[in-house]
Specification:
The protein is α/β, with parallel strands linked by helices. The chain contains 15 helices and eleven strands.
């Protein structure tokens, strides 16, 4: 099945130019059964990436434009009265999809944001006392603009903890932007994009990722990093046990993308900034990136490699 990963990356590059590392990190979140948070300015391709991924896996794509007047039922769905049948019928919301794009998630109110808490963790949603399952794969790509803060509501720690990785696309290079101009002269490449995987293929890939080996020594390295974050002088809130598990699963997915059936220390070290940064709550005035770098330096990787 691993050649299908290469097919998927090639397929995404047809419409989404450049940023191969970013694409791979998003796939790490997908294959590990998690979700991705993209923090970037408008117009850099966040929506295009989400749509291209949905088309590539032949999945159902839904987009939520988060605004302050958005209600929880606008996301989950609600029961409506059918006068012909004289009974309530469930009208599913956009949450019943395979790829869900929550655009500018921090513009939704905390009450509306909480509508995603259950489904992102348990792949189910409870509406009017009835629990409904979301068929896998279910993958949330949420975006927020790090520049604008007026009219926004910061995501609570519980919400941030449900994202596997947090990353930024950034601006393309001059060469990549020129390729974009050349590709978008006529019909958009997204309209021509064909599926290269099925939903069953994605589920099988997720099952195979779970079989990637993680040695006891490497698990101790992960644990050392996590526990160091909980006792660091510059951190108010360290990594949760959920974050510990997420880092291991992300490392398994990254190793799988590298065509290995085992995790190496460099996999963990590479992923720590993307898995930790949005989970840590630093002391006032401290920079999260600097703290993460100090954590990595405090736990020697050479001991694990040996």
């Amino acid at each position: 099945m691993r050649h299908k990963i290469d097919d998927l990356i090639d397929n995404l590059s047809y419409s989404f130019v450049g940023k191969t590392d970013t694409v791979r990190l998003v796939l790490v979140a997908l294959l590990s059964g998690g979700h991705a948070l993209l923090e970037d300015v408008p117009g850099v391709g966040k929506t295009l990436l989400a749509k291209s991924l949905a088309r590539s896996i032949n999945g159902r794509f839904q987009r939520i434009q988060c605004t302050p007047d958005l209600l929880p039922t606008d996301i989950t769905g609600t029961n409506i009265w059918n006068p012909n049948k004289r009974e309530f019928e469930f009208l599913p919301g956009p949450i019943f999809s395979n790829i869900l794009l929550a655009d500018e998630i921090n513009r939704a109110t905390p009450r509306t944001q909480s509508a995603l808490l259950e489904v992102m963790e348990e792949k189910q949603v409870t509406i009017d006392g009835e629990t409904r399952s979301i068929l896998p794969p279910f993958f949330v790509i949420a975006t927020q603009n790090p520049i604008e803060h007026q009219g926004t509501f910061a995501l609570p720690e519980a919400q941030m903890d449900r994202f596997t990785v947090s990353l930024s696309l950034g601006y393309p290079t001059e060469k990549e932007e020129l390729m974009m101009l050349q590709k978008h002269q006529g019909q958009t490449n997204l309209e021509e994009l064909k599926p290269c995987l099925s939903l069953e293929d994605v589920r099988e890939l997720q099952r195979q990722v779970n079989q990637v080996k993680v040695t006891a020594t490497l698990q101790q390295y992960i644990l050392d990093l996590v526990r160091a974050s909980r006792h660091h002088d510059e951190i108010r809130l360290g990594i949760s046990p959920r974050g510990t598990i997420v880092l291991q699963k992300a490392a398994q997915a990254y190793a799988f993308l590298e065509h290995r059936d085992y995790v190496i220390p460099d996999d963990v070290k590479y992923l720590v900034p993307y898995v930790f940064s949005h989970r840590l709550l630093p002391m006032s005035g401290r920079q999260t990136n600097t703290i993460v770098r100090k954590l990595l330096e405090s736990i020697p990787i050479e001991k694990v490699a040996a």
